[in-house]
Task: structure prediction
Amino acid sequence: MNSSHNYFLLLISCAFIFGCSSKTEYLPIMGPRDLSASGDTIFHEIPSFSFEDQNEKIVSNELVKNKVYCSNFFFTTCRSICPKMNKNLAEVVKEFKGDDRISFLSHSLDPANDSPEILSAYAGGFGVDAENWHFLTGSEKEIYTLAGVGGYFVSALRDEASIDGIDHSGKVALVDKNGRIRAYHDLTDSANIDELIKDIRFLLDEK
Amino acid sequence: MKNKLLLGSTVLLLALLSSCSSESDNSSDTFIVNRTSYFEGKKLYTTHCSSCHQENGQGYASLYPPLANSDYLLADPERSVRIIKLGLDEKILVNAKAYKFKMPANGHLNNEEIAHLVTYITNSWGNQGVNMNTADVKKALLSD
Result:
C-alpha cells in the first residue's frame, strides 16, 4: 500500500469518527444501566437521602424532586481543595440566587464536627445568602455511602495519613430533574465555573 | 568556538544574576528580610495557607481574613505564631471587618516552618514585618 493510500484511509477514519461524535447527545445520562423485564433501559438515579442543613431544616430528596441540582462533598476545616471548590461554587450559586428550580447541596464529610451551627457560620462567610444553597450534615455513614459507588460515584474516604484526615474529590455532580447524573465539573479550577453555569441552564430548559 | 561559548555562558550568568536580584524582598534601607526564610515561607504558604487566604494574601469574603495590609496580623506577629500552631476559635476584627469562622490548628508544622511562614506573611504584599526565628516561635508559644 502506498502512502497516498494510507492518507486516504486516515481521512476516511477521521470523517467516520467525527461523524459519530457529532451525533452524541449533549450531557448524556451517566452511571450504570440496567434492563427491565420488558427490555427498557433503567438509568442510575440518586438514591433517597435525608439530612439537616445550616438552618436546621430537613433536606431530603423530596426537596429536589423535579429540580436540577448540584452536589458536592466538603468539610469546613479542610485546608486543601474545599476552600477553592466552594469559593468557585459560590460564583455559580450567585448566578442562580432566588431561582427555586435549582438547589445546591454541599455535604459535609465531617458531620460530627460540622454541626448546623458551624455550617451556618461557614455559609454566612461566603456572603452569598442564597436560600437554595444547603450545607448538609447528618449520619456520616449515610453521607459517605451517598458519595460513593451507587450514589454520586465521587471518591471520599477517611485517611488519617492526610493532613486533614479526609481524602475526597473536588468534583461537583450535576443532576437533572429526574435525579440522574448528567455531568461532573472540577470546581477546584475556576476555569470550569462558566461551563457548569452553561450546563445548568441547559438542564433547566430541558423538558 | 571557545570564545563564543564563553561569551554565551557569561551572558547567561549575567541574565540569571540580574533576574535574581530583581526579585523584590520588600526590604527597606533599615530592615533586611532573611531571604532564605522568606522563600521557604513562600513555599510553605502556597502549600498550607493559600487555599483559604489566597495566593495574594487578600483572604476571601467574610470567611478567610486578609493577611495583606492586615492590622490584626501586623499588630502582633507573635499572636499569629500561636494562631498558626493552635488555631483560632473566636471572632476577630481585621481592618474593621468581623471574621468569626474558626481557623483549624496546624499542629503538624514545626517551629522552624512557622518562623519561615511568619517571616513570609509579614513581609509580603506590601507588609513590613519581622524576621522570625525558631527561638522567637518557641518563646511565642510558651507565652500563650
